[in-house]
Amino acid sequence: MDVPPSESFWAAFRSLSKRYHSQGHTESAAKLDAVVDQASKNDAHNPAGALVLFGALVLTFLQQNEWNAAVDVGIIVVDARRALLGPNNPSTMTSMNNLVSAYWGQGRWTDAINLGRQVTEARKKALGEEHPQTMASMSNLAAAYRRQGHWRQAEAQELRLLEIKTRRLGEDDQSTLTSMGSLATTYSHMGRYDDAERLETRVVERSTRVLGDHHPSTLTWKSNLATTYREQGRLDEAEKLESEVLDARIDIHGPQHPLTLTSMANLASMYRDLGRLEEAEHLETQVVETCKEKLGEQHPQTLVSMVNLASTYRGQDRFEEAARLGGRAVATMKSRLGDQSPLTLTAMADLALTYQGQGHTDGAEALTAQVLRLMQKNLGPLHPHTLTAMANLGAIYQSQGRWDEAETLAEETVRGREKVLGKTHPDTQASMEDLVRICRVLAADQTTGVRPPHHS
Questions:
Q1: Cross-referenced SUPFAM superfamilies, in alphabetical order (predicted)?
Q2: Is the dihedral of CA 356, 358, 360, 366 positive or negative?
Q3: Measured between alpha carbons, how far is 427 from 429 in angstroms, rounded to an integer?
Q4: Can you count the helices (H) and strands (E) in the chain?
Q5: Which of 15, 100, 242, 298 has the fewest CB atoms within 10 Å, i.e. is most exposed?
Q6: If phi over 0 gives left and psi between -120 and 50 gives alpha, with beta otherwise, what is residue 176?
Q7: Considering Cα of 60, then 61, then 65, then 70, what sign does the dihedral take?
Q8: Contact 110/341 with Cβ under 8 angstroms?
Q9: Residue 247 burial (CB count, 10 A)
Q10: Among candidate residues 421, 372, 378, 428, the one with its CA nearest the CA of residue 397
Q11: Measured between alpha carbons, how far is residue 234 from residues 84, 142, 228, 281, 426 in Å?
Q12: What pLDDT does 148 receive?
């Protein structure tokens, strides 16, 4: 005999409460117990009314970045509403959209995409594409696409959202600015840094005027612009802007808030690029420890912070520590995100640099060649990260005395970087200097028949 949906979800919530208590998740358990008690008193015979209270609890968990609890409760609410109200009921679709947000927060981007597609299509049919709830679903889906590295799909969603919002709400509306900022972030991921900067500058200017200099949204877009400056090689501007954002976020949110941690990680990367390795290590150590405590060691944000710290260790010639930490992060990323995720590929490329620093040239070559093939396939041959992997492989060939192969890669890297980044970008300049050095070696070889040793 089937269990009625109302009895089933009550049992599920009570079972979840027991699990939280047994695992020591006392704060989540207390919040859940309070809602169970309230719903039992007021809506014991009204399952739809009880689910309103549990749906509100999901929102509370989302607002407090308690992603695991939001997913646990959200799944029960979605299943119960599907059974009670049907899959196309507005309340069901709302709970599905909230679950998409929770999956995104957990770093379960494939699950977020699969469910996000369902709710977006259902809302388009039931409400129309320009309904606010439909647009909210499209925005969540675009964010999941972007995190998973499906940048073309993200761009398509965000362009459509920006067109609708600009027409209906105006350019200065906060929702329009959010879509403009999201599109800029996607452009940055795609390596279209000039397009990203152009949009981000407009968003920051308008947000500062409309919302204020220290509004959380303004700070987010300033942080994104600082990251774009870094990718453009404008490190001093990047460091100055991100420092301002970090100070403001500590004042507003405190030192352990996810947005504060994002700014700390960004600023640490800028310090590393500037050669300020002790300052980078100090910030990155804090980020890793807090992410492990708040998100868990397998969360993508934690794993990225581990890779960043490993990169700083390598810069300090602490190769064993770098290999240990980076290797652990890569292994977990492969199992959690897959070996074709942009985050995994970046981490693999970084680990290969550590192998090279350790003198494990064969391992470095094999891993870098694998990364280059996968980046060419998944990111495209002219993506800046692909070109970096190409430059890294060329450097390995130089260390092996394979100058002809190094020259071929160096020429391709220069052409690609001139096209994508411009001739004045520091990475382009470095590639040009590299190519000149290789040409000198080959010229010396033709003159004397003896090639000089490579100097790294």
A1: TPR-like
A2: negative
A3: 5
A4: 21, 0
A5: 15
A6: alpha
A7: negative
A8: no
A9: 12
A10: 372
A11: 56, 28, 9, 21, 9
A12: 87
Distance, CA of 221 to CA of 227 (rounded, Å): 10
CA 396 to CA 432: how far, in whole Å?
17
Tokens of 204: 């920051």
CATH fourth-level superfamily of 177-184+194-275: Tetratricopeptide repeat domain (1.25.40.10)
- Which are the contacts of 7, defined by CB distance < 8 A and separation ≥ 6? none
pLDDT at 162 over 80: yes
Q: 153 to each of 5, 113, 143, 186, 414, how far by Cα in Å?
A: 36, 11, 10, 10, 29
pTM of the complete model beyond 0.70: yes
Q: Find out whether 251 and 257 touch, Cβ atoms under 8 Å.
A: no
SS (H, E, C) 172-231: CCHHHHHHHHHHHHHHHHCCCHHHHHHHHHHHHHHHHHHCCCCCHHHHHHHHHHHHHHHH
Measure Cα distances from 435 to 211, 323, 401, 408, 418 in Å: 48, 29, 14, 9, 13
Which letter does DSSP use for residue 170 in this model? -
Q: Which residue has the tokens 């808030």?
A: 257
Greatest CA span in the chain, whole angstroms?
Answer: 93
Residue carrying structure tokens 């090639």: 451
Burial grade of 443 (CB within 10 A; 0-12, 13-18, 19 or more): exposed
Asked if 204 and 222 touch (Cβ cutoff 8 Å), the reply is yes
- The secondary structure of 271-307 as a DSSP string is HHHTT-HHHHHHHHHHHHHHHHHHH-TTSHHHHHHHH
Give dist(CA 419, CA 242) in Å, integer. 28
Q: What is the mean pLDDT of residues 430-435?
A: 94
- How many C-beta atoms lie closer than 10 Å to residue 125's C-beta? 11
- For residue 456, pLDDT beyond 50: no
Q: What is the pLDDT confidence band of residue 42, given thresholds at 50, 70 and 90?
A: confident
Nearest 5°: CA angle at 271, between 269 and 275? 115
Tell me the residue length of the chain.
Answer: 456
- pLDDT tens, residue by residue, 363-401: 999 999 999 999 999 899 999 999 999 999 999 999 999
- Measured between alpha carbons, how far is residue 6 from residues 30, 36, 51, 349 in Å? 22, 13, 9, 51
Q: Does the structure show a pLDDT above 60 at 35?
A: yes
